[in-house]
Amino acid sequence: MDRLRPRNREVFSGFTNAEIEKMKNFLNEPKGVTWGREFYQKLAGSFNRSTGRAGKPVIKWTEIEGWFQAKLQDLPQVPNSELMVPKCKEVDVMQDPSELEFEAKSSKDGAWYDVEAFLAHRFLSTGEAEVHVRFVGFGAEEDEWINIKSSVRQRSIPLENTECSNLNVGDSVLCFQERRDQAIYFDAQIVEIQRRMHDIRGCRCLILIRYDHDNSEERVRLRRLCRRAKY
């Protein structure tokens, strides 16, 4: 899955021509039509199930949202009564718990995926609680029962170019692992940091991380790391 999270980043550009045409058609709908999270999630599901995306990274609803927001910003200004553009949440305002976004660790591969919905919950004989999770971009066949205590948490946040100075050896991060057959997020620890001068491309530091699930190591750029949410 292409899980490079687009919050405050450049607009995702991995859409196929057919997907772009479909999104452009929505832009041409009469004024007054608004889009929300449910619309983006359903469109992502439609794209991910299409034959044109076979063998390509899975599309996230937030990537579609970013594309629409970028295109809407390029449109001529119209009265608010005619067009509503989704607004970003203010980071210094306390969120309603119902608006928080979560991620969960799949028992199938040990990777973390964004949660679309919590469908049900149950208590095991051990007293531990589990939730039935649907992952963003996946259908019901991929739903899983997930241990709340060990495998559900608030969504990790992509690190910005200026945040490399806040990283230290030993820090826990979420790292985007790219392989020929998959591209998904795993927990990791920072082993070493080679700090370098930034240039027009942004942070050029090299960060050696060790994945928690198999203890393998890899040198990565900051753009592949997310900061785990603190409680």
Shape: globular
Proportion of residues in helical segments:
10-25%
Q: State Rg.
A: 19 Å
Low-pLDDT stretches are: 1-10, 77-98
State the strand order across the main sheet. 6-11-7-8-9-10
Explained architecture:
With 231 residues, the protein is α+β, with helices and mostly antiparallel strands. The protein is built from four helices and eleven strands. The strands form two sheets. Strands 6-11-7-8-9-10 form a six-stranded antiparallel beta sheet, with no helix packed on it. Strands 4-3-2-1-5 form a five-stranded antiparallel beta sheet. Strand 9 (206-211) and strand 10 (217-220) form a beta hairpin. The radius of gyration is 19 Å and the shape is globular.
